[in-house]
Each structure stands twice: as C-alpha cells, then as structure tokens.
C-alpha cells in the first residue's frame, strides 16, 4: 500500500511500484499517484529512470504531443547502458523500424500505406472466420472434457491457454495469409515470446529470428504469387507511386502480429475475468445477448478496455525538447510512459471510475491510445473481443471462475497487463 507522507515539508515518497502486489492490483497505487504525484519520476525494474503520467487530461495531451518522440535514438540513457534497457528499437534489428518506433514524416508515410491494405472493410469481411475460429476452440475445449471425463458433467479449462492465447494468433496469421499448416509454428514462437517476457532473452530472440525469417520468405512468395490476403495487400499498396520496401513490409507484418497478439489475449482474459467477478453485469450481458441485443456487448467491450485494459502503459516516448506535463518539467531525452490504466480510472474524467458498468456510453477511454499512434488494429480487436466474449457466454452459459482471485497470477511485463492463467469450470451438456 502507498506510504504516507512523512511530513508536510517532505515530498511524499509514493507507493512501491512493480512489486508482486502491484502486478496483481495496480489501481490503488495509481489512485495515489494521480492524487499526489500525477507526473511521477520512477526507476523501472530495468534500471531506467522514467516519468509516469497518470491523470487522464495529461495522458491524452502527452499521447498527442509531437515533442515526445517514439524514436529510441532520443533517449538520454548514457551510451554504456544502451542496448541493456529492453527499450524496443535499441536492438538494431530491421524488424524494429516500425510504426511504434518512428515519428512523422516516416510514420505518416508508413501508416498511410498500411491503412490502404488493413481497411475496416477487410476486417468486417473477416467476421465469419473469427466466429469459426472461436467456435473451433470452444469445440476443442468441450471435446477434451468428453475424452477426459467421459461425457456429461463438469468441465474445466484454462481460458488463457486454450482460448484467449490461440484465437488472436490464428486470426492474425489468417488475415496476413500465413498458410494454415504453418500457423502452429507461429503459435509456438508467440508462446515463447509471451512466456519469457522479462526473463532470459535467448529463447525470445530465437523466436523473433525464426518469425522474421519466415515472414521475409512469405513476402517473397507473395510477391511472385499474390493473393487477397493482407501481406499481398501490403506489397500492392502504393501512395504517390511509393511502395513498402521488403524490409518495411516484413517489419509491418511483424508489428501487426506483435501489437495484435498479446493485447487481444489480454482483452479476452482480463475481460472474461472482470465478467466472472461481476456477476450482476455478466447476467445483464447474457440476458441482452439472449434477446438478440448486441448494444450492451459493444459498449461492454469498450468498458472492459477502460476498466482493466490490456495495455497498462503506452509504449515509450522520449522528450525531444524541454516541456511541461501537468506542471512538471520534463528534460530533453527523458523517457515518458503514459499510464493508460491510471488515466482510464481518473475520477476527473469518469463517473464512478472503479465501477464496471457495461452500459457506460460516455467512455472516451485511452485503451487504444490517442493521436497519430492510435491503435491501427482497433476494429479487429473489437471484432475478436466481441465475438470471443459473446460466444463463450452463449456456449458455456454457466462458466465460473475455478480459483480464488487472490491466487491468480498476472504476467509481470512492463507495458501489458494480463493473467497467466484463467481456470474456469462449467457444465457440459
Ligand atoms: C497501437 C492498444 C489490438 C495493431 C496501439 C496503441 C495502443 C494499442 C494503446 C498505441 C500505443 C502508443 O501510442 O504508445 C491495443 C489494444 C488492443 C490492440 C488494447 C486489443 C484489445 C491490436 C490489433 C492490431 C494492433 C489486433 C493489429 C492486428 C496496432 C498497431 C499500432 C497499435 C500497428 C501502432 C500504430 C501506430 O503507431 O501508428 N494499440 N491494440 N493492435 N496497435 Fe493496437
């Protein structure tokens, strides 16, 4: 819990961040920061000093402030520490020159090109496939009960590993045009990346390398034999005669996988966990869906993003000049982390911010970011989130948490917030 200020003249020390308790429930600490130290200097577990921006108004302004660069070259970290901070992009790999690490005008050009291929229409046309994938994963969960338990009765599953984790990886692979027979390789590489986050880098680096090698070859094949998939669309996309280079296309495919994978796992995991622990809200949603009303599903998924969103901190930003955020001076080169999870619980912006209200409509949450880096995949994330939650509630209507919430473990990555496992039980027909 937050320390108390030791005296009126002392600057309050603030809560302990990045501990196990904090990973389980960071919201009391964020409430303290918003109130007492809204732009807070802290040392991250990697040893890097950074500013945390926790109030909604400051967060929104910072996300749109072009004096804050996404390019890690603007980081003031001493040369000897470079490459050791884990800040993406310090590793010089080609895959790292992507939308989340660059500024205008390069960002504007790449974002325009990818937007021509990754259109809301392409996502809408993908809806039946997302439904099919969702049903297949639930079929597998149900079949497993039959095989293991011998028919009707109680079933059990871990919704993270058996559902939330595979759904987005298969969905993005399909959308990109990765052939079905190769998608399990992606599942393994992505599994390695998610499991060993913050841990030893060897396995992760190997997985990234394999993924890159595969994507470069796939792009080469799609150049020769284009299809109607997203990679062929990326290759075809042109703007004033300009195309993506081979490296840019590989980096773009990689960031789509990377940005669209763990985020969606967490939307399904955190979202389902919130529903399972708020039974009155969950019943309202189940009732609405049974009556064919999808309005509450739509506002509900937005509320789940606000209430306990997948991205706890927006990705890195670095001050390119001196500036002030919320009255606090920020020095040139200082890293700034916008805490989306804190901003989205700010009582100055949201009524009853700590209450889950699936029917909330005044909800301009920052779960997808804001400004020029606003999430490119938001329409796909909404489609997957809505399909996943609605189908789980329809097909496993008496789904229940099979663990004490206090015993659940949250993954300790810096940027993301998500459960390691979500054990559930249900009745099989
Ligand atoms: C950017 C959240 C799903 C692709 C972002 C940002 C956030 C975000 C907060 C901005 C980061 C920043 O400004 O530092 C989410 C959430 C998702 C989700 C909560 C799921 C619920 C997806 C999916 C895709 C995707 C499914 C693609 C398949 C991207 C890309 C960017 C981005 C490419 C970078 C955009 C740019 O820099 O111009 N996302 N995302 N995201 N997201 Fe998502």
Automatic annotation (TrEMBL):
InterPro entries membership: Cyt_P450 (IPR001128), Cyt_P450_B (IPR002397), Cyt_P450_sf (IPR036396)
Which superkingdom? Answer: Bacteria
Gene3D superfamilies in UniProt: Cytochrome P450
In residue numbers, the region (Disordered) covers 69-88
A Pfam family reported for this protein in Swiss-Prot or TrEMBL: p450
Q: Per the similarity annotation, which family is this?
A: Belongs to the cytochrome P450 family.
Which PANTHER family would you find in this protein's record? CYTOCHROME P450 YJIB-RELATED, P450, PUTATIVE (EUROFUNG)-RELATED
Name of the molecule in the record: Cytochrome P450
């Amino acid at each position: 819990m937050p320390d108390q200020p030791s005296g009126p003249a002392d600057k309050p020390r603030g809560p302990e961040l990045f501990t196990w308790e904090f990973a389980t429930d960071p919201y009391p600490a964020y409430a303290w920061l918003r109130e007492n130290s809204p732009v807070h200097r802290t040392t991250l577990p990697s040893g890097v000093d950074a500013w945390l921006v926790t109030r909604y108004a400051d967060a929104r302004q910072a996300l749109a402030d072009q004096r804050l660069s996404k390019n890690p070259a603007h980081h003031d970290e001493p040369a000897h520490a470079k490459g050791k901070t884990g800040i993406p992009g310090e590793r010089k790999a080609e895959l790292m020159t992507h939308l989340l690490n660059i500024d205008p005008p390069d960002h504007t050009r790449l974002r325009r090109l990818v937007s021509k291929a990754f259109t809301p229409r392409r996502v809408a046309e993908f809806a039946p496939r997302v439904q099919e994938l969702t049903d297949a994963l639930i079929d597998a969960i149900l079949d497993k009960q039959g095989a293991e338990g011998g028919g009707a009765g109680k079933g059990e599953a871990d919704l993270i590993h058996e559902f939330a984790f595979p759904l987005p990886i298969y969905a993005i692979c399909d959308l990109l045009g990765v052939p079905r027979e190769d998608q399990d390789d992606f599942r393994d590489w992505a599994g390695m990346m998610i499991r060993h986050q913050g841990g030893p880098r060897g396995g992760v680096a190997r997985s990234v390398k394999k993924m890159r090698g595969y994507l470069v070859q796939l792009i080469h094949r799609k150049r020769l034999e284009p299809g109607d998939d997203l990679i062929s669309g990326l290759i075809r996309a042109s703007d004033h005669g300009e195309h993506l280079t081979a490296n840019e296309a590989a980096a773009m495919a990689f960031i789509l996988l990377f940005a669209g994978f763990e985020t969606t796992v967490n939307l399904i995991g955190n979202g389902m966990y919130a529903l399972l622990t708020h039974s009155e809200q969950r019943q309202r949603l189940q009732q609405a869906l049974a009556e064919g009303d999808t309005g509450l599903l739509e506002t509900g998924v937005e509320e789940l993003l606000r209430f306990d969103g997948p991205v706890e901190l927006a990705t890195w930003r670095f001050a390119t000049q001196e500036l002030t955020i919320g009255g606090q001076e920020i020095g040139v080169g200082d890293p700034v982390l916008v805490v989306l999870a804190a901003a989205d619980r700010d009582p100055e912006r949201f009524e009853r911010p700590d209450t889950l209200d699936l029917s909330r409509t005044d909800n301009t949450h920052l779960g997808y970011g804001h400004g020029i880096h606003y999430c490119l995949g938001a329409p796909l994330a909404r489609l997957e989130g809505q399909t996943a939650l609605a189908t789980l509630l329809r097909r496993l209507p008496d789904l229940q948490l099979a663990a004490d919430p206090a015993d659940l473990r949250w993954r300790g990555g810096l940027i993301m917030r998500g459960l390691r496992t979500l054990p559930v039980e249900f009745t099989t027909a």
